[in-house]
Amino acid sequence: MEGSLPEPAPAGEAAVSRYSFAQMLTGQWQTVKAKNLLSKTILDELIRVVKGRIAVEETYSKGLAKLSTPISNSYATLTEAVVGFSSDILNKSVQHKELAENLQTDVLNELQNLREDVYKSGRSANTNITALSTRLKNGEVAYRKAHRAYDRAYHEASGHCISLKSTDPELAESLNDRVHEAIQKAEETGGGIATSASSLRKSAMHSLGIQSPTKDLVNWLLPSDSHKKHTTVEAAVQHLLNAENARANCLKAWDTLNAVHVQCAIEFQAILNDMQGLEERVIFEIQDMLRKHIVLESSCFANLQYDIQMLFGVMES
């Protein structure tokens, strides 16, 4: 129903299951890092407190043990009560020692293992994100380089075409088409733009009906009009081929960059999913450690209460 409140989660279902790092934190790695840092801080504080609690229990246990030496008395009627009082102190010492040991084994060690996993996973994820950023940067650098080369080749080719147009407008108009026809023919034979520049240039010149002049000393020293025209057209054709080659390289770099973007996005989402799993594990395991702490402490108090009741019975008998 529109405008209604969302249904509550079923009993026992964790609230974090409705939260998705991959959907809500895409492109926000700093936020994910901040969450990981917060988990580290919480674990460090919990470990500090539990360590302190264990130290207090151990100190208390040792202090009680020193006080539990048998008390000598000459009152036969009080012997059992006095012995029971001394034994109760010793039992308290034992109970608090066991509590300290259980806290060490079942709570502190587990928290330390969890913290180590959080630190390792955080470092690994950060390394992977850095690698992804480097791949993206390299792809962008390669594309910009290819685009600059294409831009330069395009302007050079335009300049030669403009120069040719001033002397032979009709030839200049058909020049670009003849170059593309030469490339298309090469593609049909499986070569395309990868065909040698010399072969493409000859093919384009041939389609333009321009023959190579004789290469003799006279033409070299005193070039004829046809020789000059051939040189001008040949230069324009070559620069058009260079521009087409640069354009192909630029498109290839663009396709590569897009592929890198897609792959990095997939890998980034996988990292986010791993980090979400880690954060959920931190929540669940901290809850479990706190429950264990309560159970161990309750057990210790229950045993102490039983010992006190037994002592009370002895004292009143």
Automatic annotation (TrEMBL):
* Localization per record: Cytoplasm
Where mainly located? cytoplasm
Gene3D superfamilies for this protein = Arfaptin homology (AH) domain/BAR domain
Q: Which UniProt keywords apply?
A: Cytoplasm, Phosphoprotein
According to the lineage, what is the superkingdom? Eukaryota
GO CC terms: cytoplasm; organelle; plasma membrane
Supply the name of the protein.
F-BAR domain-containing protein
Q: Which organism is it from?
A: Triparma retinervis
